[in-house]
Amino acid sequence: MRFNSVTSAVALAAAAVQARELPKDEARATEELYDSGVIHDKIMSMKIAHWEAEEAVGLMNSSQWPRLGYTKCVNGYAEAIQDSPLHKFRCKNMDLYDFINHATLGSPNTDYRGKSGSSSWGWTDPDSGREFIVSGMFDGCAFIEILPEGKMLNLGFLPTYSPVGDRAYWHEIRPYQHYMLIGSELEGHGVQIFDMKKLLDIEPAAAPVLFTNEDDLTGHFIESLPLGRSHNVVVNEEAKYAVAVGVQPRNEGCMGGLHFYGLEDPSNPVFLGCDGQDGYVHDAQCVIYRGPDAKYNGRDICYGYNEDTLTIYDVSDKKNSKIISRTSYEGATFTHQGWVNDLNWQEWLFMDDEYDEDDLAGPAADGYPVTYIWDIRSLEAPRQTGIFKGTVKGIDHNQYVVGDLLFQSNYGAGVRVWDISSVPEDPTGNSVCEIAYFDIYPEDDSLPGGGAIQFSGSWSSYAYFKSGFIFVNTIERGGYLVKMTKREECKPKSCSADNCLRALRASSVPGRLEESQEFCGEFTKTFVADVAVVPQYAAEACPTNVISRVSSACSCLPTPTA
To answer: Which residue ranges traverse the bilayer (predicted)?
Structure first.
């Protein structure tokens, strides 16, 4: 991605900074990693190798996982099958209602290798209130109704548009009115457009129905996609268009950037133009801007997650879109996905980097998932003001804002729910708290840090249903239906005398308290996420989730006297 210096970026000095947005390393971007696609290809290859290794030992054989019913979360666990460790799920304020494996949901025309999961999205029929899920799988998409009692009804399956191959793991789904748009990394796949109203008249006794691409698609888009593949699809429903992103090859045409197509007539999507100015776009959110930056009110804005930057576009003219800003950040390894706080007043943005935990980069140096907080009140000069970190080791993946809650799908850590209501008053992220979770991958629970840094477990979740049901699509097992039991308030941070705090105020070391007070004064002044600036004595005493633990310990030190 091509990049000019960010005007608001500042050099890091000791441990005190105003924010952590940074200009990116041009040489590293253009010559070594990003523009060439080296990093993306490496991550894709890592994932495929990992999933094929799981397949080789039978972990992708989802038929081994039985249907599960309602299971209450009790004392931190939902034990769906008694005395079965692989059916004992860590949880908080969230109950299990149903589980169906991929083998049951998948096409009858493939073996179990085709029964892995990916993206998902939901649709509610506005007339009846009935709720439906589209669940991405290796060889297509399953259609599921969420019944009022919290059971899932398998209604049908739409096969992939082109023959399956190792890129079939990726199916991404987004809504437009009563349609679902389905893209894939498969060559020749394009974007399928399916009318969800087809599900309304399916009788349970006749389900599941096997749909066909020849008879059941409303439309299909492949124009402008050189190989017919994309990594993701994005929809601006208000402006009636969609975007294919992550288009390959990335060295032709629009360089893997934004490919716009109009949806005025979903049966005949029309290519509107493309933007390759910043090269490859992995994911994006495109919306009509409403917010404090008056210059852009009413403009069509895309927030692009472009491997090593947050890139903000004005795409009001699809044939002549403009880049408003391109901003990197500390720990940038693979900028993956994000979401704004409120479509009606866009001030904050929450973003994940998919490779920083694996690479142990920046604030993820200790292996705990990092969510980056961006102040986007100026689209021309966004500021990366803070972070918050997961409570178990792992990799964060996809996240969406529902009200003042953030729902994340974090691979082996499952679905995690964060209260982000404090961010306008405390943009450092120190006051954000995790209020609920359901860990769908017990296999890694006993590891140090409570999880593994690997691409296993949950891929996506959908939490926008009025009923409160949350669908979680996993890679290996199948689809889970869970529901929060209560909304817990964030508690004030308490001071417990653990080894971390003891190390900072150790009376046995002359001058240690004063040294810690001096360090903490700078460390907590605004926002610091660099593990390297933590003194060795503190890092050794706080070996897990270093930034979060040191920040908490710093807040518990007595105020220095003059």
So the answer is: none
Rounded to whole angstroms, the Cα distance separating 340 from 374 reads 9
Dihedral angle sign, alpha carbons of residues 399, 305, 549, 432: negative
**Which residues contact residue 68 at a Cβ distance below 8 angstroms, ignoring those fewer than 6 apart?**
80, 81, 87, 96, 98, 99
**Residue 76, pLDDT above cutoff 70:** yes
- What total of structural domains would you count in the chain? 1
**Res. 529: pLDDT tops 70:** no
pLDDT digits (tens, 9 = 90+) for 384-418: 999 999 999 999 999 999 999 999 999 999 999 99
Place of tokens 């005190």: 16
Global model pTM greater than 0.85: yes
Containing structural domain, residue 530 = 499-555
The structure tokens 């931190």 sit at: 76
Query: Hey, is 132 helix, strand or coil?
Result: strand
Provide the terminal-to-terminal Cα distance of the chain, rounded to the nearest Å. 50
Q: Cα–chain-centroid distance for residue 159? A: 25
Is 561 a domain residue? no
Q: Per-residue pLDDT tens for 170-211?
A: 999 999 999 999 999 999 999 999 999 999 999 999 999 999
Q: Is the pLDDT of residue 464 over 60?
A: yes
Q: Kindly state whether residue 279 falls inside one of the protein's structural domains.
A: no
DSSP state, residue 16 = B
**CA 395, 400, 405: angle at the middle one, nearest 5?**
100
- Please indicate, yes or no, if residue 535 is contained in any of the structural domains: yes
Q: CA dist 72 to 76, 437, 440, 473, Å?
A: 10, 13, 14, 20
526 located within any domain = yes
Q: Answer whether 329's CB lies under 8 Å from 310's CB.
A: yes
**Total residue length of the chain:** 562
